[in-house]
Amino acid sequence: MEQVYLTLNAGSSNLKYSVYDAQVRHKLTAGKLEFKVSPSDSPDENALSLAVDRVVALVENTFGGDCIAAVGHRVVHGGDFYSQPILVDEEVLVRLKTLIPLAPLHLPAEINAVEIIRQHYPDMAQVVCFDTAFHATQMPLAQWFALPRALNEQGVKRYGFHGLSYQYISTQLACVLQPEHRAKVIVAHLGNGASLCAMQDGKSVTTTMGFTALDGLVMGTRCGELDAGVVLHLCQQQGMSLNEVQQLLYKQSGLLGVSGVSSDMRELERSCKPEALQARQLFCLRAAQKLAGLIPALNGLDAIVFCGGIGEHSAATRTMICDYLAWLGVKLDVHANSVAGAGTQSINRIHAEGSALGVYVIATNEELMIAQQSAALVSPH
Ligand SMILES: Nc1ncnc2c1ncn2[C@@H]1O[C@H](COP(=O)(O)OP(=O)(O)O)[C@@H](O)[C@H]1O
Ligand SMILES: CC(=O)OP(=O)(O)O
Ligand SMILES: [Mg+2]
Fold it and tell me: What is the pLDDT of residues 298-352, one digit of tens each?
């Protein structure tokens, strides 16, 4: 049996997996296992373990026991340690554990997934592929907070996330966008987590997420950009503990917090409650404001690309965001927008004739990036 690459993307409530052939040309299978989130802080290790066990059993049954050449993992934060994918060893695990406070929603499950695979296959090559890595090219100034400079030297700076998704979109820009739309592009990755990335010639120049994946846009359960004074108020005036503030900002805010209905955009679109509409409107206003705020770093804008669960599938969200950007000369083709993401096409042009900017929907593929990066480290030919 030919060797395959297994990719794992362990979230706080689901495990996404895929299997690629030895040449990383074909996705042989893929899926998502949901598991119940434990009410405690950390994701339920047992639930994750069961999900990884199921994936391992599935891969072994379908492809054979010793067919896996390597397991590649999405890891959201590499901190100042890593800006390239790396083979896992003891030191890597120790370093990643020190970063857990910077990505409490993601890193515990991602590290657990590595450890569970180790128990199954002690000698298996495992590669960790970082969301932060793509943003190593950011303009240096964009990585700064206006804090005392010693903090920057200690690593308190803007890293940026969703890098595997942006890297995939970057590979698509050159081949699918009209030539006049390729140089200065803002990509909107709108999923449960959401961010924007300004790219010059396919490289990250600046992005809306920062030190952690809390910054920037309104998200499913995360607040996005927030006046730091609110955090002080919650601790000092309302007596909230740090742990309570962390839960509030990461898990009880965003679309869920504002709507009181759901963190899921599909449910908000179905709801007739005014709070659900208000949450969607805030999501879109913030996205448009943040998008406009990235334009100076590019000194212009040729195109906008939407991706991620919401970006690829919610025509109403794309319309609302682009309505706020009409002053830039953005004009959508109503029909193209309404059908984008519904069919099998992975790339859709949705701007109208005469639009000053190109607007596209591209189905992202983080798994392909993980499989390619893993293959490059394990069999680099
Ligand atoms: N057809 C759809 N219409 C509107 N929103 C959608 C649709 N399909 C998925 N979504 C939204 O996409 C979000 C999940 O995005 P996804 O990128 O899959 O998340 P994750 O960050 O977990 O990878 C949810 O808010 C979901 O409601
Ligand atoms: C970094 C991040 O927010 O990831 P996700 O969208 O998968 O939650
Ligand atoms: Mg995601």
Answer: 999 999 999 999 999 999 999 999 999 999 999 999 999 999 987 777 889 999 9
Average pLDDT over residues 272-295: 98
Mutate to test the pocket of ligand 1, among 131, 266, 307 (most ligand atoms within 8 A of CB): 266
* 4-130 maps to CATH 3.30.420.40: yes
pLDDT surpassing 50 at residue 39: no
Number of the ligand 2 atom closest to the C-alpha atom of 161:
1
Residue 1 CA to ligand 3 centre (angstroms): 32
Domain spans, the chain: 4-130, 178-366
Output the pTM of the full model.
Answer: 0.96
Q: Tokens 């303009």 correspond to what residue?
A: 139
Q: Kindly state the average pLDDT of the residues 11-29.
A: 92
Q: Give the pLDDT confidence score for residue 7 in this predicted structure.
A: 98
- Residue nearest to ligand 2 atom 2, measured at CA: 193
Which residues have CB under 6 Å of ligand 1?
11, 191-193, 220, 264-266, 269, 308-310, 313-314
Instruction: Give the single-character DSSP code of 332.
Output: B
| DSSP annotation string for 238-280 | S---HHHHHHHHHHS-HHHHHHSS-S-HHHHHH---HHHHHHH
Expressed in angstroms, the distance from the first to the final Cα of the chain is 20
C-alpha 67 – ligand 1 centre gap (Å): 32
Per CATH, domain 178-366 is 3.40.630.10: no
Does the annotation place 93 within a ligand binding site? no
Mean per-residue pLDDT, 107-120: 95
The Cα–Cα gap between 364 and 169 comes to 6
